[in-house]
């Protein structure tokens, strides 16, 4: 009867062709959903859009149940006033901010804890490059933020179609899903990069998240105070300045992507500066990530 | 050839950490010695493909250091010195992740995680979070993590750090078995020379980025001097006196005994005869050879400017006054 | 483990009395809520180097804290240099501590930090600086004393910690894992320094997990297990006290089998193991008889001895026998 040595054996099996970032991505998502608080935050973050769907249903019922016969044009008019792109934008924007909170909570714990616990030293001693690691971490957070913006966006659009009193609503809104998707990608990429950069800058997860929130609020209030001060002095320039607040910049860029005409917009933010700021922050974040996440840290 | 370096130079900016390092390691277990800042970590990181050499060439497991760095890390294991594990993960999850990163299919990674934890003696703790482990268990997790992807060569950096005597012995047994029983080539970096001597049969000494000694430990320890280390029961002073009286050269006894060179023509029986003549018996007797510490110190001394490194300042006079006397 | 009964003492009373003891611990216990770290230990330590050993979690660090006045014992007394440490905290001016935690003001330079500590000991500015430089010189760190702690290696920090503990030339020195993280050069130098301090007549209590280094510097061992003193004395004394284990002698010779045959007739031989082709392990109850026999036979050149050693008279094997 054979007795086997169970102490240790090597591994000579076939290795997979899966690139190194994939397990990292998988791990980030798994870890986020293992944490009950994060899971709760995620679900709460998606909820408001369902409220909007319900609201749409009842509001359209209201229109349909009017006693007075009205023409088709009037129906279209009323329903457009009730719910169209500007409303989409506001709801999706709120949805986006909630998703960003989720991103901050999830992403904030990612790189900082790896750095703080020195897990990076072991991870980088494996068959994974820095690019793959960063890509994995990045995609892990982006996927979640995308989920938290895309899913509500499509649900609202579907509810809009199904419940609308306007029979030709589909034709009118055919371009919306694509626009929503583009915006969702833009928003999740830029906010994730920023969150990860803060996570890489500060070694404590919750401090990184806090710093991120403080950064957003401070730039918002500071830039807006500056802009209103400039408004008294000169015309036009203050709109340019307002683009350098992350919230305002994102809102302006979102309006641009969703295709809301300038006339319907009551924010005074210059698109140029908004775009510059969004792109600049993304570039800066990538730079910070590369500076801070290194296989080797040289201490003089 | 497991590791082959040719004129390897590594720089950090303007600081040259490793100078023209050439060596050929044919496999087995080798100790990597050197004082702090000698370039040990730099060398390990270069060999893992994390640092690019500035000049020279190197091959590990037949893979080129510059071109195949990812493939190298797929086939080499590394146990780092500091604690290294992400928070909120249990041992199995952490090892599974590392296995997957190294290209193991998910199921294989999970199986191997269990196997390696078993090997490291953590079978009971494997579902607990690594954060809550004791020092000894954390070291074992690191060892298991270095093995999870079935490497052909492992680097172990100070594996016995912080372990108590029993834990240290178990860890050393595991390290030794890697090469002896499981055929994994082992490179052990440690400040504890007895650890190196226990696990490894070969050694390389780095100093100021240069290779100072390299080869089988037994060869390096061999001494030309025909002498014996002797300790006797009873008074060592008396024994040494008797040996000298009968024409032998004997050093002043210390804890390990005295180094005795019998007079010309006499063999080891001379020492036993002397012991018998003063009615004592020999307690310990061995052929004199240099200790690994001697080998280490001498190879550094051969290096350069040792005056700066070996501290002569130990004999500085102590502060005479006590604090209470100073007004 | 049934050695305790054969040892001189396994608990607080009847401890070995040491003349001119500088550290005198009586009935000391320390507990934190439900956690009992040290249980009713009594011992004395005199001048020279004493090694405090024990597995992780045995209560060494707690005992250190109590002895150095960093925490008060729950019960029992600590007398240092004949004075009650609880009532006269002034006695701590004559003790030096090298703790095991690795925390510094990272932005401070080495020499600044030690000067500052010396001033806390009551030195004036100039003397403090001189004392700091002298103690740094003693640990061989003069070249790097102007470095900031943040830029020092683990070994350098460790030696700075050591320098800090001897800056006021204390009579009693407590060193908790002083060699941790040092490279072989620093270890060698530090072991020598500790040995030297012991020979100067200082009382040095040193804890370490690296037994052969303790063996090289300490004359006396205190073995702490589970918050209690399991054994105290020199390595030789402790080995003698473990009567339940036979002594083991290793003999390397070119003719092991004939030698083994003759050994069976030597008084006290309990067993012989062929460890390798030319190496015998002999268990004996009376090592003196065995060694005398081997000496005699070798002197007559009847057997050729290549190596002879008592394998269990070192700290490592004693620790293994007692603690496992």
Number of strands of chain B: 14
| Element-level helix/strand string of chain A | HHHHHHHHHHHH
Order of helices and strands of chain B: EEEHEEHEHHHEHEHEEHEHEEHEHH
- Which whole number gives the mean pLDDT of chain B? 85
Radius of gyration of chain B: 25 Å
Count of alpha and pi helical runs of chain A: 12
Taken together, the total number of domains of chain A comes to 1
The shape of chain B is globular
The proportion of residues in beta strands of chain A is under 5%
Strand percentage of chain B, roughly?
A: 15-25%
Distance between the termini of chain A: 60 Å
Major beta sheet summary of chain B: 6 strands, mixed
Task: Report the oligomer.
Answer: heterotrimer
Largest sheet of chain A: none
Written overview of the protein:
The complex is a heterotrimer of chains A (300), B (327) and C (324). By secondary structure, chain A is mainly alpha-helical. Chain A has one domain. Chain A has helices at residues 21-34, 36-64, 72-82, 85-116, 119-124, 130-163, 169-172, 176-201, 205-233, 237-242, 246-258, 271-292. The termini of chain A are far apart. The model of chain A has no long low-confidence stretch (mean pLDDT 83). With 327 residues, chain B is α/β, with parallel strands linked by helices. Chain B is built from 12 helices and 14 strands. In chain B, a hairpin with a 2-residue loop joins strand 1 (3-12) and strand 2 (15-25). Chain B is globular, with a radius of gyration of 25 Å. Chain C is an alpha/beta fold. The longest helix of chain C is centred in the middle third of the chain and has 16 residues, at 184-199. In chain C, 49% of the residues are buried. Chains B and C meet through helix 6, helix 10, strand 14 and helix 11 of B and helix 3, helix 4, helix 5, helix 6 and helix 9 of C.
Short recap of the structure:
The complex is a heterotrimer of chains A (300), B (327) and C (324). Chain A is an all-alpha fold and 300 residues long.
Write the layout of secondary structure elements.
The complex is a heterotrimer of chains A (300), B (327) and C (324).
Chain A: H1 21-34, H2 36-64, H3 72-82, H4 85-116, H5 119-124, H6 130-163, H7 169-172, H8 176-201, H9 205-233, H10 237-242, H11 246-258, H12 271-292
Helix pairs in contact in A: 1-6, 2-4, 2-6, 4-6, 4-8, 4-9, 4-11, 6-8, 8-9, 8-11, 8-12, 11-12
Chain B: E1 3-12, E2 15-25, E3 29-33, H1 40-47, E4 55-60, E5 63-64, H2 69-75, E6 76-79, H3 91-101, H4 106-119, H5 135-147, E7 153-157, H6 165-180, E8 185-189, H7 193-199, E9 202-207, E10 210-216, H8 217-221, E11 228-232, H9 236-245, E12 249-250, E13 258-261, H10 269-277, E14 282-287, H11 292-303, H12 306-309
Chain C: E1 23-32, E2 35-45, E3 48-53, H1 60-67, E4 75-80, E5 83-84, E6 95-98, H2 110-120, H3 125-138, H4 154-165, E7 172-176, H5 184-199, E8 203-207, H6 211-217, E9 220-225, E10 228-233, H7 235-241, E11 247-253, H8 256-263, E12 269-276, E13 279-284, H9 287-299, E14 305-310, H10 315-323
Parallel strand pairs in C: 3-8, 3-9, 6-7, 7-8
Antiparallel strand pairs in C: 1-2, 1-4, 4-5, 9-10, 11-13, 11-14, 12-13
Helix pairs in contact in C: 2-3, 3-4
């Amino acid at each position: 009867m054979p007795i086997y040595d169970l102490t240790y054996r090597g591994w000579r099996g076939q290795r997979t062709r899966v690139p190194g970032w994939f397990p990292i991505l998988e791990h980030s998502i798994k870890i986020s959903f293992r944490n009950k608080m994060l899971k709760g935050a995620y679900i709460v973050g998606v909820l408001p859009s369902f409220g909007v769907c319900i609201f749409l249903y009842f509001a359209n019922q209201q229109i349909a149940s009017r006693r007075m016969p009205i023409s088709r044009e009037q129906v279209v008019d009323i329903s457009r006033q009730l719910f169209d792109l500007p409303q989409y934008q506001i709801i999706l924007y709120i949805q986006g901010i909630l998703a960003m909170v989720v991103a901050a909570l999830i992403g904030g714990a990612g790189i900082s804890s790896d750095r703080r616990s020195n897990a990076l030293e072991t991870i980088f001693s494996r068959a994974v490059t820095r690019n793959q690691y960063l890509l994995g971490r990045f995609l892990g957070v982006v996927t979640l933020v995308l989920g938290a913006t895309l899913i509500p966006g499509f649900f609202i659009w579907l509810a809009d179609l199904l419940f609308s009193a306007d029979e030709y609503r589909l034709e009118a809104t055919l371009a919306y899903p694509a626009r929503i998707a583009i915006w969702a990608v833009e928003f999740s990429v830029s906010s994730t990069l920023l969150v990860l950069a803060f996570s890489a800058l500060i070694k404590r997860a919750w401090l990184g998240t806090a710093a991120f929130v403080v950064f957003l609020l401070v730039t918002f209030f500071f830039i807006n105070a500056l802009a209103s001060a400039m408004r008294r002095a000169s015309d036009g320039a203050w709109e340019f300045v307002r683009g350098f607040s992350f919230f305002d910049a994102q809102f302006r860029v979102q309006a641009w992507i969703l295709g809301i005409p300038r006339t319907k917009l009551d924010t005074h933010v210059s698109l140029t500066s908004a775009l510059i700021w969004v792109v600049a922050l993304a570039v800066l974040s990538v730079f910070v990530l590369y500076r801070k996440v290194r296989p080797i840290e040289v201490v003089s | 050839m497991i590791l082959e370096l040719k004129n390897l130079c590594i720089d950090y900016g303007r600081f040259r950490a490793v100078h023209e390092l050439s060596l050929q390691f044919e496999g087995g277990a080798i100790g990597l010695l050197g004082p702090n800042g000698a370039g040990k970590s730099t060398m390990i990181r270069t060999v893992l493909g994390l640092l690019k050499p500035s000049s020279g060439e190197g091959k590990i497991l037949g893979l080129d250091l510059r071109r195949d760095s990812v493939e190298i890390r797929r086939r080499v294991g590394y146990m780092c010195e500091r604690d290294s594990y992400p928070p909120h993960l249990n041992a199995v999850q952490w090892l599974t992740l590392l296995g997957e990163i190294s290209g193991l299919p998910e199921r294989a990674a999970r199986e191997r995680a269990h196997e390696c934890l078993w090997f490291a003696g953590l079978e009971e703790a494997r579902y607990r979070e690594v954060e809550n482990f004791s020092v000894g268990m954390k070291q074992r997790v690191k060892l298991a993590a270095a093995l999870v992807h079935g490497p052909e060569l492992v680097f172990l950096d100070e594996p016995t750090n912080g372990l108590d005597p029993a834990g240290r012995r178990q860890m050393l047994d595991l390290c030794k078995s890697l090469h002896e029983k499981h055929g994994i080539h082992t490179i052990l970096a440690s400040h504890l020379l007895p650890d190196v001597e226990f696990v490894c049969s070969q050694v390389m000494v780095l100093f100021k980025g240069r290779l100072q000694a390299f080869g089988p430990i037994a060869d390096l320890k061999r001494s030309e001097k025909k002498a014996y280390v002797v300790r006797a029961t009873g008074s060592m002073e008396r024994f040494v006196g008797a040996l000298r009286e009968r024409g032998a050269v004997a050093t002043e006894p210390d804890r390990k005994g005295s180094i005795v060179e019998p007079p010309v023509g006499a063999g080891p029986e001379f020492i036993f005869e002397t012991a018998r003549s003063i009615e004592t018996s020999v307690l310990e007797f061995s052929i004199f050879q240099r200790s690994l510490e001697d080998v280490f110190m001498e190879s550094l001394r051969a290096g350069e400017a040792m005056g700066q490194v070996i501290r002569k300042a130990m004999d500085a006079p102590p502060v005479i006054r006590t604090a209470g006397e100073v007004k | 483990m049934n050695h305790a009964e054969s040892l001189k003492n396994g608990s607080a009373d009847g401890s070995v009395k040491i003349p001119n003891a500088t550290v005198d611990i009586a009935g000391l216990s320390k507990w934190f809520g439900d956690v009992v770290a040290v249980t009713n230990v009594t011992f004395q330590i005199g001048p020279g180097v004493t090694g405090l050993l024990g597995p992780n979690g045995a209560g060494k660090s707690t005992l250190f804290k109590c002895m150095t006045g960093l925490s008060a014992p729950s019960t029992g007394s600590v007398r240092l240099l004949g004075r009650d440490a609880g009532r006269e905290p002034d006695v701590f001016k004559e003790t030096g501590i090298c703790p095991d935690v690795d925390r510094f003001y990272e932005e401070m330079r080495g020499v600044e930090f030690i000067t500052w500590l010396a001033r806390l000991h009551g030195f004036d500015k100039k003397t403090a600086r001189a004392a700091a430089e002298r103690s740094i010189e003693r640990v061989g760190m003069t070249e790097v004393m102007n470095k900031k702690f943040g830029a020092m290696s683990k070994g350098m920090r460790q030696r700075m910690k050591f320098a800090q503990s001897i800056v006021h030339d204390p009579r009693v020195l407590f060193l908790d894992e002083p060699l941790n993280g040092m490279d072989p050069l620093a270890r060698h130098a530090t072991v020598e320094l500790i040995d030297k301090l012991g020979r100067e007549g200082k009382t040095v209590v040193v804890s370490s997990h690296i037994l052969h280094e303790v063996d090289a510097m300490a004359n006396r061992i205190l073995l702490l297990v589970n918050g209690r003193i399991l054994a105290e004395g020199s390595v030789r004394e402790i080995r003698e006290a473990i009567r339940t284990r036979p002594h083991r002698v290793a003999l390397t010779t070119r003719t092991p089998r004939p030698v083994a045959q003759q050994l069976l007739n030597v008084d006290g031989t309990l067993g012989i193991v062929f460890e390798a082709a030319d190496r015998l392990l002999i268990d004996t109850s009376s090592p003196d008889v065995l060694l005398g026999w081997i000496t005699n036979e070798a002197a007559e050149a009847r057997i050729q001895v290549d190596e002879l050693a008592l394998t269990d008279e070192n700290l490592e094997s004693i620790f293994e026998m007692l603690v496992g």
